[in-house]
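Would you kindly consider the sequence and fold I have copied below?
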Amino acid sequence: MAERSTARSGSGARNPGGTRVRREALLAWIHERGEARVEVLATAVAASAVTVRRDLAALERQGLVDRTWGGARPHVALHYRGDHLARAARGEAAKRAVAAAAARLVAPNMVVALSGGTTLTLLARMLRGRPLNVVTNAVNVAAELHGGGATKVIVTGGALKASTYELVGAAADAIIRAYHVDLAFFSCSGVDEAGYGRRDHAEAAIVRAFRRAAARTVMLIDQGKLGRPYRARVAALGEIDQVIVDGPLPLAWRERLAAGRTDVLEVAPCDTGAS
């Protein structure tokens, strides 16, 4: 009986809704782990290896994954500079888990704002192809979302900061003020008792503009940023609606981040499932 049920769910012609749901589950699994083997994916979605390979081929044609020998990994739209790759590699599993939790907050047809940063880059890949309107000041985030079919991307103007791929300045601020954003996601360079900070004052100003335009704000951080002060202030601890961070947090930091109206969501990094 279980085998017949699996066969039906693997048939796109008979059950297109089941195919879509299964492929969304495969995509989420791959993004949360960075890479996964066919056998692991087949177990995760209760389908045959043949079905999973067919699904991965379809996802690759859509530009959502890259197939590897025996598995798949998230598609990377750009050739990144070495400094970006180095930052992305620090705490990668934690950043991936945080980004995956953020992606689950996004509902169809929302207007979503994404600032720059390595965690936001991961989030952009997870949102590619969804029916959304995304406003961003990061040209790499826009490129990661490009070609996603139902995803509409609005890029702010401004001067490009080559080190972070972000557009800053008055032009970017003006575009942001023209939109009402349902959900704004951003990251920071460090957090201390005074709040969230960035290395660069121009980048911090853009994040503050996104905050003003958004109905709800979400800060994405990893524990490596705790206790690192930066003078370019983005927000005080109690001025963010939700913080998503890899856990478990030390009690003192859990209480600190939960200041004011802020909800703290702690997430555990996933095993890769790639070996």
